[in-house]
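Mods, move this if it's the wrong board.
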Amino acid sequence: MKRFISLLLSLLLIFSSLTVLFSCAPVDPGLIPSPPDSGSGDPEAPGSDPDDEDSIYDKNGIIKVPTKDYGRDTKDFDVYANDYQRPDVDSILEAFKECSALIRDNQVSYDDQLAAILALEDGYVSFNSSLVLAEICNNKDLTNQKWKDEYEYLSTSRAAFTQSVEDLFVACAQSPHVESFENDYFGEDIEEEYKNGGKYTDEAVKLLEEETALTNEYKNPDLSSVPVTYGTLSGTYDEVIERLKELYGNNSLWYSSAANSVYQQAYNTAITDIYVELVLVRTRLASAMGYDSYLELAYDEMGYEYTPDDMTKLLNDIGEFVVPMYNNLVPYFNSYFISGAGSFAPKRDFAYTVNTAYSIMCKLDSGFADIYSYMLQHKLYDVGVLTDKRFDASFTTYIEDNFSPYLFVTTTNSVSDLATLTHEFGHFIDAYVNNGMHSTIELAEVCSQGLEMLALVELSSMLDSPTYMYYEYTAIRDAFEVVIYQGFYAAFEHLVYSLDESEVTKAKLNELVSVAEMQVLGSTSGYDLRAVMIPHVFIAPMYVQSYFTSLIPALEIYTLEIANEGDGLSAYKAIIYRPESDSGFLDTVSSAGLSSPFESGVIADVMNELYFAITGIHYITSPGDLSNAA
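Not the wrong board. C-alpha cells:
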C-alpha cells in the first residue's frame, strides 16, 4: 500500500504503474456502432437529433455506449465535482505531525503505530484528489473564481503537505521498526533514502510556495501594468489599449489588429519575466534541498535512470543524424502539404474526434474499447476548442477517491486533434489499468505515444488512401519534430538549470537559446526566450526530454505492427500490463523487446525507418553503422 510514495514525485500530469487489479470484460463489438462513413472512407461527424431516443448519438453528437458496472465505484464527473467539499488541510497536516511524533516517541506498540499511519490515508486521498479536481476545473475555465481560488489554495498548500509526508517517511526510516514498516506498508526500501533526514526544509517549503505562485500567475498573467509600445504610443498595457480605442473605435479592424499586437507584446514580456523568476526560485530551491544544481534535483525527482551526460550524447546524436534527415525530408513535406494532394485538411469538431478514436479502439483491442466506453459513460473527459477562458494544454491525470483517470484535450478542430486524443487516451489506459500509481514519466509517455502510433496503423484500414496518406505524412513529420524540437527545449533546460544563481538573468537566458539551437539544430535564428515559452518549461521543468526518449520505443511499436499485425500491439501491452517489479523505464522497454534510446545508433536507426517510409530509400545504408549516413 504505497499511498504516500507518489506524492513525492508529482500530483498532476503524471500517470502510473502497478499490475492489473481487476479484469476488464470486453465490450461486444456488435454493440458499438461506428461513425457513419462519408463514402470516402473518412468517418464523418454525426448529425444526430437530440430528441430521437433511438439515436446512437447523444445530444452532443457523441456515440452512446452500453452502460455497465466497472467495479470501480466511479461517479460521473459532474456528480463528483458537484459533491466537492474543501478538505480541512490544517487538520490533515496536524494528523501527519502527530503520527510522526508517535513513531519517534515509540511509546506505543508497533501495531498501534501502523494503525496510526493507516488512519492518515483518508486525509491523504482527500487532499490529493481535491487538488486534482481543482486543477481540472480551473483549466476548464480560468475565469471561474471558485475553482481558481480552490486551486490556488490547495496548490499553495502542497509544499507543506509534501513536507509532512516526507517527515513521516523519515520517522519510519529512523524507527527500530523500519523493516516492519517497509514489509507491512511501504512495500519498498525507505531506510536508505530517509535515514539521514529529509530534503523538504522550511526554507525549501517557502521556495516551493513561491514556485507555485509563479506557475499559477503564468496561467493567467496580469498584463495591466506591463509596459508596451505601439508606434508612437507607449505606457502600460491598459493605457495603450485605452488610447487605441480612442483612436480607432472598439469595433474597427484597425483596433483589433493593434490591440492583438499590443496584447502579444505584453503577454510575452510578462511570461518571460515570470520564467526568469521561476529559474531563480528553482535554483535557490536546489541549494536549499542540498543539491549542486536544479538539474541534479530534477533528475532525482523525475526518476531518470540516466545521467545528464547520457542526455548530452543523445542530443548530439539528434543534431548529427536526425536533423540532417529531417532537412532532407522538408522538400517532400513541402511538396506534399503545399500541393493539391496534400491540401486535404478538413475541419473536424470534437464529436468527430471522440467518435473516431472510439472506432479505432474497437478495431485495435476489445479491452481498450471497454476502457474508452468507461470514459464516455462516466464523462471522464473534456475535449474542447481553445478559448480565452481555457488553459491551452492537453493532459491526463488521476482522481484517486473517484478511482478514475481524467482526460483533458484542447483542440484545434482539425485532423491533428485525433493524434492528441489518442495520445492522451494512452495515458488514460495506463492510469486505468494501473490505478493511477506512478512509475516513471518515460513509461507513461511510451503508453501515450505508443497508442498514438498504433492508432495510425488502424486508420490505414479505415480511410481511403489519400486521406490516410495525409495522416501518415503528418504523423511522421510530427515524430521528427518531436525529437528535434523537444530536443532543443531539453538542451536549453539543461543549460539553464546548470547555472549558478548569480548567472540567472534574462540576458543570459536569451543567450542560452542560441547555444541550445547550435547544439541541436546546428544553426541559430536569432530567437530569444519566446522560442521556448511552452507550458512545460513553466509547470513541468525537465519533462520535455521524456517525449523523445519514450518516442523511440513507441516508434518501434509502430514498425513492429506495420511489419506483422499484432506484434506492435503485443509489445505495447507488455508496457501497459507490466509487472510491478519491472517498473523502470529501461528495464520495462527491454522486457517488451524494445530498445533503449541511449544505445549507440538506436535513435538514428529508428528515425531511418521513418525516412524510408517517406522517400523509399534509407538515409543510413547499414543499420547501426552511422558512418554510412547519406
